[in-house]
Design goal:
The protein is an alpha/beta fold and 269 residues long. The chain folds into two domains: 129 residues, 3-Layer(aba) Sandwich (Rossmann fold); 110 residues, 3-Layer(aba) Sandwich (Rossmann fold), CATH 3.40.50. The protein is built from ten helices and ten strands. Helix 3 links the parallel strand 2 and strand 3.
Length: 269
Amino acid sequence: MKLLVPLDGSVLSESMLVPAVRLAGEGGEVDLVRVLDPGRGGSPDARARQAVEAYLEDARRRLEAEGLAVRWSLEEGDPAERILVAAAERGSELIAMATHGEGGADRGPRGSVAERVLRRSAVPVFLANPSAIPKTHQGTWRRILVPLDGSAFADLALPWAARFAKRFGGEVILFDVHPPERPLSLKEQAERLRGRGIPVRRRTAHGDPAEQIVRVAKEADLVCMCSHGRTGIARWWYGSVAERVVRACDRPLVVVRPRSEGDDAGSKG
């Protein structure tokens, strides 16, 4: 897998190097990107820049020791903007970022660089709360929860769930949180996964969708979900459910944003 890992010099961002090894897989490629924001403290002097370059070079050596192909770049500008452009230019399949919350209902990346990347990325984004990273390092992502709302957009998370389930010998948990009068069949999705040799379970719950997803996610190792649908029954994903899950969930997530006509990873839309 081709993975982009933004680093900002913090312990939290560096902690993403641990799951990066697992995400990229044997023979995978990792791009490390550090963005210096001139708007916050100005451009660094030569000595400070050399220190950042030494830090990135050390990270590169550590990942290469794990059998990965690694390169790094040091850039200046708006961090979210540069991360999105870098992912597009390098053909990244996945962006891996740490969330920087402190706990409570809004402990996720609200208003942060991670949230801005998530809202606009043309490729899926892997987000992990630092408290979950030691757990993911010790084991593998074998129980993968996929919340579904009956839309084709939500189904876009299924290939990613299948990809990780195949790699780690895990199972996919299809999760329907619809009202009881509108249950989902999910038969087609389950058959598709079982046809690839992936064990499938189904969970159903009623109530507030975000709250139920966060609750059931405690039984999983990884959550794969779509960021939003666009019309009809999928509308409850837009700008509310997915973002609330990202902010509150203590499990790693892979969030897929459906692309629309005219999407551009480097645009300001």
